[in-house]
Amino acid sequence: MQRTGLAAQAGLSTGGLMPTPTRRPPHRSPAGRSLALLKRRPAHRLSTWSTWNDERLLDLRLCDLDLRLESTWMMRGIEQLGAELRTRGIRVTPHCWLSSEWFCPDGVPGFAIPFYLAHPRLMRLEQTIMGEVEGGSHGSFMRILRHETGHAIQTAFRLHRRAKWRALFGNATAPYPLSYQPKPWSRNHVLHLDFWYAQSHPVEDFAETFALWLTPRSGWRQRYAGWPALKKLIYVDSLMAEVARSRAPVQNDLQIDPLPSQGMTLREFYRKKRETYGLLGENSVYDNDLRNLFGPGINERGQESASAFLNRHRRTIRERVTRWTPQYDVALDHVLRLMMVRCRRLRLFRADPEEKVLHDFSLLLTARTVKYLHTSRDRYAL
Q1: Residues 124, 238: Cα–Cα separation, whole Å
Q2: pLDDT in tens, 311-370
Q3: pTM, whole model, 2 decimals?
Q4: CA neighbor of 152 nearest in space, from 189, 233, 197, 206
Q5: What is the DSSP string of 39-104?
């Protein structure tokens, strides 16, 4: 997710999250803070706030969290990313820092990582308030790392200035829309992050294409055979071979909006984030169906939560539904994910027998997936 053009000037997130605080003077990374040179340190220190309840924690300012990227579980992924880049012969190693969200600033060959990933207590708070933790698993974290690295590589080598890049991906300086409406059936873009993110803007299209290309064992040539998007992947493959032999013209270690400069409280942060992240608002087209299936959100008898049940049976549900919608597996995953988030937000629990719920939910998901593809007008915040 890149801050660029009008969106950056307005202080708006282009990563689907929230408005950012007033711009402050950029910080510089301490020496050696590139992905390749970050050193693993002992596990995160015990913070006094880690035992606080949510209400007390929400009044803490972001700058007072005193978090360090080097002391987190994320180092494993960062080191893996560095190895993947070296395997591809790419010598540029983007620097990274903690901030309020995922973003790659315009003109900076590096990217920010959201603070809540740096501590398990903050990840639990994110889960409670937002219903999910973006990048909270190793697999999800790696997908976003590769995406942000695509932005950093584009900036470092000014790839968007090339005529062929513009012909394939579009105008990188086009203003970011506040939201976008994807076409789930389109084969002009790769599928990497959720919500058909490559369709949101030309620079996101490139970042998604790069991320898929970089992913080990992605099998992109076979997977995208016959898709118009294959031309973009082949171009990235040849472009990166050229980049591997050249020196990046843009080199700096600037940090934009680093965590120590963020004076807002966690309460303010989540209020703004929820306002922007309208997808997770208080009303959803799935809520009535889910309430009818799982019943009231009161756990009086130790029932399994609806979201845990769906997660445990995700593979079985997908197998049942894809019998009827085999060509819609991406849309199916998307709708299933939204339903699981709503189950967590509504605090629903399973009361009926397991097989009955599996049967009824599979029918519901089939109907909702088909309806989504034919009638959806969903728009996603940038």
Answers
A1: 42
A2: 899 889 988 887 766 556 667 887 888 898 888 888 899 988 999 999 999 999 988 887
A3: 0.73
A4: 206
A5: PP-SSPPPPGGGGS-HHHHTTSBGGGS---GGGSTHHHHHHHHHHHHHHTT-----EEEEESS-BE
Same domain, 105 and 253: yes
Q: 3-state DSSP call for residue 380?
A: strand
* CA-wise closest residue to 205 among 152, 158, 150, 163: 150
Contact indicator for 223, 230 with CB cutoff of 8 Å:
no
Does 341 map to a domain? yes
- Residue 381: strand pairing partners: 179
- Is 236 part of any domain? yes
Give the residue from 272, 275, 277 showing the smallest Cα distance to 20: 272
Domains identified in the chain, total number: 2
Q: Measured between alpha carbons, how far is 18 from 35 in angstroms, rounded to an integer?
A: 26
Residue 272 lies in a domain: no
Strand partners, 255: 27
Classify residue 88 by burial, with Cβ atoms within 10 Å: 0-12, 13-18, 19+: middle
The span from the CA of 4 to the CA of 356, in Å, is 50
